[in-house]
Structures are given as C-alpha cells and as structure tokens.
Write a structure and sequence with these properties.
Blueprint (H helix, E strand, L loop, with lengths): L6 E5 L10 E5 H10 L2 H6 L4 H6 L1 H10 L14 H4 L2
Length: 85
C-alpha cells in the first residue's frame, strides 16, 4: 500500500456499534465492503479480516483489484457533489 489519498481506515466493528479498532486498507476496498455488507453484518459476521476476505463478493473484488497498481483509484466512482449537477 502506498500512503496517501488511496488509503482509508476501516472500523472492524462499525462505530455505530461501538467499534474502535481499525485497519488500513485501500479506499476502493473500503467502499466495496460498505457497498456489499450492512453494518449489522459487519458487526455480527465480518469483523475480522479473514472473514471479510472469505465473503464471495469481496473475494472476487480482491482478485480483480490485486492486478491494479498500489495507488489505483477507481475512476468510475463519482463524488456526491458532482452527481447533483
């Protein structure tokens, strides 16, 4: 991983459920996790890295993104402010 804008901190247990522990991951991986899983699913079943990696959709995404350079940022993601225009 390359330090900078391509990284985020992911709460293993969502903050809404009192989670404090975080792991550093690529921003697009973090976005994928939250697009696929609810906060309740994260709290109950996917609060460990190995469990996240074992989820079929996340595993497929990891296989795809693994071939990208470390600083890769998905160009298709849109900023919410830009979508309103």
């Amino acid at each position: 991983m390359v330090p900078g804008a391509s990284l985020n901190e992911h709460h293993l247990i969502p903050r809404t459920y009192g989670g404090r522990d975080t792991v550093t991951m690529h921003r697009i991986c973090h976005a994928k996790i939250h697009a696929v899983l609810t906060e309740q699913q994260l709290r109950d079943h996917y609060h460990e890295i190995e469990a996240l990696r074992g989820h079929p959709d996340i595993a497929a995404f990891i296989r795809w993104v693994r071939r990208k350079p470390p600083e890769f940022v998905d160009g298709h993601a849109t900023d919410r402010r830009r979508r309103k225009r």
